[in-house]
């Protein structure tokens, strides 16, 4: 993540506009996630917070994460049990994540028509969608260009 400071300032503004509280622990959790390139695993986050906050017990941290996810500031990567900061938290629609399984880089896409099609089809089948996660797992361009690390074929997952 390149600009954690700008991201935090934006999060702060957004919380103010919505009248929700951006507490120190919420801020710190977002800051840690934003400062990590690629997803930050839940246990890594807990370990790091425990070092600096005696009070950062898992329930507190998970509540902070729930808040950040609800506000669209953070996305959960289901397949890795990790979290990424959303680069554009004002987006209203769904998103898709491209995840490099070598370096952990995550790119966020906003192909609204993909989500719209899925929602429409689900509705046609009488299915009520409660959560939609689209994660594509593979190798990023940088890792593909790097000297061979391992050559297992990349997999694609949609859950
Ligand atoms: Zn997003
Ligand atoms: Zn990569």
UniProtKB/TrEMBL annotation:
Pfam families: FUR. Belongs to the Fur family. The keyword Iron-sulfur does not apply. Keywords: Cytoplasm, DNA-binding, Iron, Metal-binding, Repressor, Transcription, Transcription regulation, Zinc. SUPFAM superfamilies: Winged helix' DNA-binding domain. Gene3D superfamilies: 3.30.1490.190, Winged helix-like DNA-binding domain superfamily/Winged helix DNA-binding domain (1.10.10.10). Homodimer. This is Ferric uptake regulation protein. The keyword Cell membrane does not apply.
């Amino acid at each position: 993540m390149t600009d954690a400071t700008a991201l935090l300032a934006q999060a702060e503004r957004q919380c103010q506009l919505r009248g929700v509280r951006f507490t120190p622990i919420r801020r710190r959790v977002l800051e840690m996630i934003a400062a990590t390139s690629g997803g930050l695993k839940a246990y890594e986050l807990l370990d790091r917070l425990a070092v600096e906050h005696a009070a950062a017990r898992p329930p507190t941290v998970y509540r902070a994460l729930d808040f950040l996810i609800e506000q669209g500031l953070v996305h959960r990567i289901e397949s890795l049990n990790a979290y990424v900061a959303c680069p554009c938290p004002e987006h209203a629609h769904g998103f898709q994540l491209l995840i490099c399984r070598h370096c952990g880089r995550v790119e966020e896409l906003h192909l609204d028509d993909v989500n719209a099609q899925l929602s429409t089809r689900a509705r046609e089948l009488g299915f009520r969608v409660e959560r939609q996660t689209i994660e594509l797992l593979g190798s990023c361009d940088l890792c593909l260009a790097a000297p061979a690390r391992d050559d297992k074929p990349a997999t694609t997952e949609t859950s």
